[in-house]
Design goal:
By secondary structure, this protein is an alpha+beta fold. The protein has eight helices and 19 strands. The chain has a five-stranded antiparallel β-sheet. A four-stranded mixed β-sheet has the order 1-2-5-3, covered by helices on one side. Helix 1 runs antiparallel to helix 2 and helix 3 runs antiparallel to helix 6. The longest helix is centred in the C-terminal third of the chain and has 19 residues. It is globular. The two termini are 25 Å apart.
Length: 316
């Protein structure tokens, strides 16, 4: 902790910004599963000083061999009960509309997806309706090429502003999106050492009322499907077209709805959602993920790939 405290104080002196810092911060407070042990240090920079402070922090942490976990909306992660060592950098303080061009809207990476959709609708701009009601942040959605209702981020992404840490010195870059570099739940950023600062999306003028109607329909659909009944991360497994059916359908047909491990349960209403009934540990959830995977493979030969990222210190 001493090294981390010294590092933060030194960087803050040279790169002032508004900053929240907590030590031994429960990650259950920062993930949609509502589980996860303490982060050694959780910090949330905000204000105009965010980019300079964050870049300096990541540089210094690299030199000091202090691990840094970059946190978006906490919507697609499962944090271990033992927590996360080093620093958790919460990007939620870098949020809002970053710019508007001819047929484009740019959002800072910490902007919630639902907020981005609302901002676009308020401007009478269509293209981001599929984000309505989706948990998570712009940065996280770009990183994983989030997808819903037949649309994925790569379909509407124009360019991404990043800081590239692959070289000896960080480089600020704007990267034009190339659709061929994206795939199902995959983006080129997953193979890069970079920090996403903002993303610009293609939008078009439309009737505001029609935009709102579609957004509200998506939100209601999510609610009807039980996405908000209990803490969860939404879909737990990736769909594989080669399996011929969605993962949830396969799980349903094997009678695994309702399967439970401790306080974790396969949702009785949807096979591809695992929920925290209120008392689940992260290990309960991971054990249930593994059990479902084993049962599916034994029955079908299919090997499911988890969609969630397992973060922190796991027993295995």
């Amino acid at each position: 902790m001493e090294t981390i405290t010294r590092l933060i104080e030194s960087i803050l002196k040279e790169n002032p910004c508004d900053l929240e810092v907590f030590y031994n911060e429960p990650m259950a407070e920062h993930s949609t599963f509502k589980v996860g042990g303490p982060a050694d240090c959780w910090l949330k920079p905000s204000g105009d000083g965010f980019p300079m402070f964050t870049v300096a922090l990541l540089q210094a942490a690299r030199v000091e061999n202090v691990p840094v976990f970059i946190l978006g909306g906490g919507a697609n992660i499962l944090v271990a009960d033992a927590g996360i060592r080093g620093i958790v950098l919460d990007t939620g303080g870098w949020a809002g509309l970053a710019g508007q061009g001819d047929g484009t809207l740019e959002f800072r990476s910490g902007t919630s997806l639902d907020t981005a959709a609302d901002i676009a609708a308020g401007l009478g701009l269509s293209g981001l309706e599929f984000l309505a009601g989706m948990p998570g942040s712009i940065g996280g959605a770009v990183w994983m090429n989030a997808r819903c209702y037949g649309v994925e981020i790569a379909d509407v992404l124009k360019e991404t502003e990043v800081v590239d840490f692959s070289g000896s010195e960080p480089q600020h870059r704007r990267i034009m999106a190339k659709k061929e570099e994206f795939a199902y739940k995959h983006s080129p950023f997953q193979n890069q050492r970079s920090l996403i600062l903002s993303a610009a999306f293609f939008v078009k003028q439309a009737e505001a009322h029609e935009i709102r109607v579609e957004m509200n329909a998506h939100r209601k659909d999510r609610e009807d499907k039980g996405h908000y009944r209990y803490p969860s991360a939404g879909s737990i497994f990736k769909n594989n077209p080669g399996f011929g059916k969605p993962a949830g359908k396969i799980i349903d047909e094997l009678g695994l709805r309702g399967l439970q491990k401790g306080g974790a349960q396969v949702a009785p209403w949807h096979g591809n959602i695992i929920v925290n009934l209120g008392s689940a540990t992260a290990q309960d959830i991971r054990d249930l993920v593994d059990e479902v995977s084993v049962k599916v493979t034994a029955a079908t030969g299919f090997v499911f790939e988890p969609e969630v990222l397992f973060a922190g210190e796991w027993l295995y």
